[in-house]
Design a protein that fits this description.
Thrombin, subunit H, six-stranded antiparallel β-barrel, 1 helix, 6 strands, mainly beta
Length: about 120
Amino acid sequence: MESPERRQLIRYTIRTPIRFKAAGLTADRSEHFSEALNVSRGGFYFATSAPLQMGMPIEATLRVPEEAAGDKSRETHCRARVVHVRSEPYGDGRMGFGVEIETFLNPARTNRWTG
């Protein structure tokens, strides 16, 4: 019997701050802050009350821990796509979202997120 697990990269259960915004044309462009609950080199999982949907693109900045980065911890800016939505909300109304990283962006572009 085949396992339903499709991940090929090791996922680390590490909490790390994340800031993100939806990147679609019709999406709310507000910046949101949350915490990634687990991270791999190819994606991450987080909970938020932001109005995200399956397939929605996001831009995110998060600190990738040393275990997942393969070298020293670093801030990463990326484009990602929602590939999993937790079917039941957390007790506080947030939903869980798994995203797959599609593109790592130039670190200089993160400056537009600061300040």
